[in-house]
Queue: 2 jobs
Job 1
Amino acid sequence: MSIVNEVQERSDYKCELCNSTDNLKVYEIQPPINRGAYGNINTCSTCLEQIEDPEKMDANHWHCLNDSMWSEHDAVKVMAWRMLARQKSQDMLDMIYLEDEAQKWAEATGEGDDDAVKIVHKDSNGVTLQAGDSVVLIKDLPVKGSSMIAKRGTAVRRISLDHENAEYIEGKVDGQQIVIITKYVKKT
Ligand SMILES: [Zn+2]
């Protein structure tokens, strides 16, 4: 049986990522690992277009990975992992399980390099913020749980980053540690 037939039968003639039956194609996962059907998936044109062109990524389409990430086929899981990494879906990346060998394969294209999956904090100008940076508030901000207002123009030195949320940093204003939204600050 040819690789194409084998993959088609394995997949029940459906896209192995989203279950669609439209415009299916047996696709060899890059870079090729030359292990026949093992290295291929059956995929629809919608999935394939987005796999090949990150600019076309439509996050809504990839809810399908909730199911396909549990596939019994490594090729499917590798592709699911890469798409999750590309979308920085850390919750799901923590859940998907790949054997060491498949994990290396998944990472072979550089998708999900540390930088790509890491949460990046940016100020109001899109400048990347790092722990220890100093920022200035660009807006009067009420401080949660107090009557204090942190005034526009206030300098906040030695910020720390919220590692769960790219929109939040923390820093001291008037001796009080407060949470600040990144879009209201400017790096100095
Ligand atoms: Zn598909």
Job 2
Amino acid sequence: MPQHVLDLLTVDALLTEEERAIRDTVRAFVDKRVRPEIGQWFEDGTSPKELAGELGELGVFGMHLEGYGCAGTNAVSYGLACMELEAGDSGLRSMVSVQGSLSMYSIWKYGSEEQKQEWLPQLAAGLAIGCFGLTEPDFGSNPSGLRTTAVRRGGDWVLNGSKMWITNGSAAAVATIWARTDEGIRGFVVPTATPGFTATDVHHKLSLRASITSAIYLDDVLLPADAMLPRAQGLSGPLGCLSEARFGIIFGAMGAARDCLDSALGYATSRVQFDKPIAAFQLTQAKLADMSVELYKGVLLALHLGRLKDNGGVRPEQISIGKLNNVREAIEIARTCRTILGGSGITTEYSPLRHASNLESVLTYEGTSEVHQLALGQALTGISAYR
Ligand SMILES: Cc1cc2nc3c(=O)[nH]c(=O)nc-3n(C[C@H](O)[C@H](O)[C@H](O)COP(=O)(O)OP(=O)(O)OC[C@H]3O[C@@H](n4cnc5c(N)ncnc54)[C@H](O)[C@@H]3O)c2cc1C
């Protein structure tokens, strides 16, 4: 489809030249490197190992962070990159989100100078992969109950416990692990080669298949005293990282939705039934029109939150509005686009069902829709309804 068809509102005019250039560079990478192969990666439940190095060269890992080999772009540019990556596949965007906004951000924001020097440059370059272990088998939406422990032994720390659903887990060289200590929840920078650290992949996934999802086991993992992130105390540490990653999702989900609409539009104009292209039927046009309205609204919402972030900050409940709306609408768009594709829509040849199934994970991670509704309910009423 010509690009202007997918930008009827001329949102492009709201972007700077630099933002458009970054967006176009990531789009070109996705078109060349990801689009031709993603159907197969999804089917095989894999993605090529060398992709991390290529994404590092592209400069998208931790691109909104300053220093240590990071690109230091504004938040909108980072969001636009997420949009293009997720137009390729949510698994690709997840890898970049976890690396940049969870693993790198946790070290960048809460780490010591030594931790930053050691890990950030190699993570930015894609020479090392990072992961972020907060969720546990019994504590997902309620991470405050986490049971992984970090106990002092002399000057060292000993970690025990398990983490579940960890993106990049088995591929990671370093893990940020959140654990309970006698002074509350603290974060630890854990080289995954440390004895007692193991990661096993979750198989049989029906969603986010081109992304690694792992369980992590920590069995007497011995770490030096300086493995703790000095500037994160309590749950606000991991929640601060999650806000960063959720921001990328707000843009990313609209990338997936745009790709679905693009695919459905192309199909609708060429598929003939009852002697006409199906695009000529009013019922099809109503679907396309409604989807485009939700897409443009979602893109504008993302851009608004991006400008807020660049101009002093965005509050967690504002992020909740974006994550709740944009993922919910993206999944609706993906499912509706699949209906336009008819039977052809059920194979990997077309993207909408792959996006829809990926977005099931995106709906759940980084705070489920219900958790974001509760966050907004609390912001509106002043009453917490979590318990
Ligand atoms: C593909 C994938 C990748 C992930 N990557 C990571 C990662 O890299 N690092 C990491 O730490 N975690 C990761 N996660 C974990 C993710 O954040 C959790 O799955 C999520 O927080 C939900 O937790 P849960 O799956 O245990 O569901 P639960 O918390 O058990 O929730 C189940 C259902 O109950 C609802 N519910 C729970 N509490 C309430 C309530 N108070 N009121 C109303 N409804 C409620 C939820 O909304 C949901 O619908 C990933 C998950 C997936 C699927």
